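User: Hey, my collaborator sent me this sequence without any context and asked if I could get a structure. I don't really work with proteins. Can you help?
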Amino acid sequence: MNFLLQNILFVLLVTQFAYPQWTNQNLVPDRNDLWSTFFINDSTGWMVGSSGFIKKTTTAGNEWFQQNSGTNLILKAIQFVNQNTGWICGEFGLILKSTDGGTTWDSLQSGTTQHLSDIYFYDTDTGYVVGFNGTILKTTNGGSVWTNLNSETSNDLLSLDFVDAFIGYAAGEVNDTSSVIKTTDGGSSWIDKSSGFPRTNGNCITLDFIDANVGFIGGGGGSTFFYKTTNGGDTWAMSGSLFQTRQTKMDSTEQLSIYPYGGITSVYFKDSSNGWFVDWSSGVDNIIRTTTDGGITWNTEYIAWGIYANALLSIFLTQHGNGQAVGVYGIICLKKESTSDWSQILSGMMDDIHSIYFIDENIGWAVGSRYGNPDKAIILKTTNSGKIWKTQMETSAYGMNYVHFINELFGWAVDSDFGEVYLTTDGGDNWNRNSSLSCCATSVFFVNQNTGWLTAKGSSYEGIYKSIDGGVTWTQKSSINSSSIYFSDINNGWAVGVGGSILKSTDSGESWVSKTSGTTNNLNCVNFYNSNVGMCVGNAGTVLLSSDGGESWVSQNVNTTEKLASVQFTNSSTIWIAGDNGTILNTTDLGNNWTSFTGVTGKDLTSLSFVNEYTGWFAGMDGTMFKYSIEPPPPPTPPVWTNQITIKDASGTELNQVLTFGQHIDATDSIDASLGEYELPPAPPPSIFDTRFNLPTNPLVSSLIDYRDSAETNITWNLTFQPSSAGYPMTFSWDSTAFPEGTFYLKDRINGSFVNVNMKNQSSYTLTNQAINSLSISYRGLCSIMSVNDEWNIISVPLLADDMTLSNLFPSATSPAYSYNAGYISHDTLETGKGYWLKFGASQQLQICGLTQGDTVSVHEGWNLFGIYEKDIPLSQITTTPPGIVATYFFEYNDGYYIADTLLSGKGFWVRVTDDGVINLNGGLLKNEEEEKLLLADINPNWGKIIITDNEGKSTILYATDKETDFSLYELPPPPPASVFDVRYSSETLAENISSEKIIQITSENYPITIRAEGINIIIRDRIKGELLNEELTSGEEIMLTNYKISSIEVSGKLTRELPISYELYQNFPNPFNSNTVIKFSIPEEAYVTLNVYNVLGEKVIQLVDDKLDAGKYSYNWDANDAASGIYICELRADKFVTFKKMVLLR
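Assistant: No problem. I've predicted the 3D structure and written it out in structure-token form, which is a compact way to encode the shape of the chain:
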């Protein structure tokens, strides 16, 4: 056996696209102490801690990414005032600032080396920091300069809070004086409030004030305390009855930090009624308590018990109720909106993972033990591919050994202490203890909801057990000490264990037969690909392979002596192994060669789980959890359509391979090996059965498969055949329903004189004419390729197909089709000439084949959602009957409404007309003069733009002016179906005069929303609350709306354009030109303007402008498709100003 050992550097694996990526899914793998967490809104937050640790989330804690603080010091507290601007303070006078949401952090000069404990910013300029030895610093310029304030105390200050720009409180080390201090003048002076404080020792670790009078202080040292004031700190009393009977003596737990903790470590109120605090009392239990009545009563929401429970140090709740608490050694607890349940997640090094199991790429479970006194058995679950693992169950057993699921609902877990078997039928939301062996269960495996097996070792209960009632009762089937069990189906199973033991069952585990392993090393895990091919692994680098169903086993050389704990097949030849000291092995050729992945981790790995060849997880001790992923190869593009024709002679003999033909986007007329085509050798002698396609190549080649280019609509497939000695008749069979739109005929080679079969009307043909040994399949069709985007589109059907049902035309659509007739109507069958809203799950190209439908589209008075046919139509070619009925621009939808300049085949468009009539697509009729100006008009280039974009990049441009004009031209179509992105003025227009306040309505499910101004300065106000959202948004600036409740805003402003200083007519571009050219001019003041084009005879060819225009620069397009080659004169008249330019049209 060959052995290939590749030491693949971890850094390469995570940076090269072609290599696997290993993602550490433990949020705090180095068990940093987490001192502070802060959220700026319901989605975006940060947590900071020791050794410069920072992580950020933009998904409400469901996913976190590392940020670089640039320091290894303790980061003690963090605060942001908006999504971009925030500060951190820490030990040795450290203050950091970010203006880009934490992507980069700048170190500020604090002017002190004292340890800083807490930070508070009132706005982007004014902020405060407190620290040891009475340190209080203030800045009024965002942190550029800090002033050391006189706190009148030398006590260590640990916590800080301000209720407005002037009134603030600080607290910390408790003694006879200055335990609590207050300022009413923005920090210029500080008042000692200790006389009313009931403590004389310990530490005030946390404080939070609801207003100038009502606040809370918590701490510890000697005993836990939690007090409330209602008079601005003059007097303090215990908050709630909870603590009147709970003055617990603090243990002398060793403090592992320069910052004290113990007792009440963090308190947070999101409003005057709702608050939370964390309590690490006696150095034993972590408790989270909440109040809904302003601290009169407190209820317990979470408790983690045990002598070694890690202290929670900081808690934060968003306005919608998402919560996070963090603490010592990287402990993190999460709370979801609208629940009172907190869940500790996988973080730090306190959890040993013994087994993992994934049911798909998103959902998986992990079981193991959580460090404590005593240790606790845990079950964790992820629903987002391992980014977050939440605790589902925590019990007093020593640890869970194994977990197994048969689908996303039914699963089993066994513990190693009492041999208890737990069952869930709801994906782990609830786990029920079904039964117990009293000791030492090692693995469990079920093939359905009822039938399963488990193994046990190291006690009088060792062996193999079977259940036929879902794990309620178990019957011992073997007494041999076993560690792992696997069944390839309900009958065939294998178990491995101590001393190289291998057992096999072929009767559903009723009886077990021992097999020779060739080793005395303990075997720890067994896995089979099917009933024949399997592998088991064990101590001292033992790897055994079987290819005969476990009857015999061959040792594999994997070049390691580490204990190997887990093995899994991902296909018939690819196997993964995990073991101690970070051992990860992989083979892609059934063990002939092995790859070792070094540098991923040095921890002992206990379990692995793959859901396919490209995605898997490795778990182990000290919270180890890594995800392996590699980009799968692109799937082969399926044919646009395919069919098969089966040929028999009189004997009924069938060719071993039927003939396959069709159309494919990658096909050519010659051999396409990537599509399975291959060249056949010459035909055999007569009387030997043969059939083949002859491809249209020179020289001629033959194949059993013949795909042609999907864009072709006129194809002939030629096939030849010869019968065996049985002779004629020859029978040809095919699937008459598998053809696309168009005509398909089976013909003889003399233009169908003898054979001419419509293949869509019948599915077989019998040929009796022995003179015919070749036939052709003739396809004629008109097809149109149309592109659709992910999510919502407005589409139309460009050709009349045989089957106009939605499921036939657009099988990948994910919504009904909605047309419009004074309201939206859903359809199962579509029509040509109409537009439809339709949603797709991905961007793609679709082919529609059928008959053309002419060159007119019917419209009715009001708004029309319509489509054209197989050819794109420039608006310059469009007329209407009766003339002049078009009242608005033509609008298209591309993640927002836009003015169209060309009507595209396969797309849908909006237009409002003033009367029933038709749209003529052939341009053969004269346009109404006003209608022509409308169809060719452009948005005034001097108007300002308000660009509104949602979080998925969907965008709409609204136009703004400060002059009155007729905005009816800019009336927008009806709003899209519910929840589809849409932005418009409340006047239902695309443009408005915003010299006075105008309302903009926003429809989007994807906040935050970005608002950008171009060519205009605007003021924006929340229409519902009336709150000002910005001082002034100047041209080129943008703001972000994070509050999804703001769906209506008021805007006002003024244009910032630079006006021309003279009248100018610029040379057209391009010049000379072919068909289209652009003419630009500028006017320095309001004027009545005409822009005309004349031929050399002085005859007016077209009038492009005839209107009163504001001062500014203008651009117009001349579509000269109907003009002859030659010289043309462009004339600009603006009041008394007249000028000309010569233009050359070349065909």
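In plain terms: The longest helix spans residues 929-936. You can pass these tokens on to your collaborator as they are.
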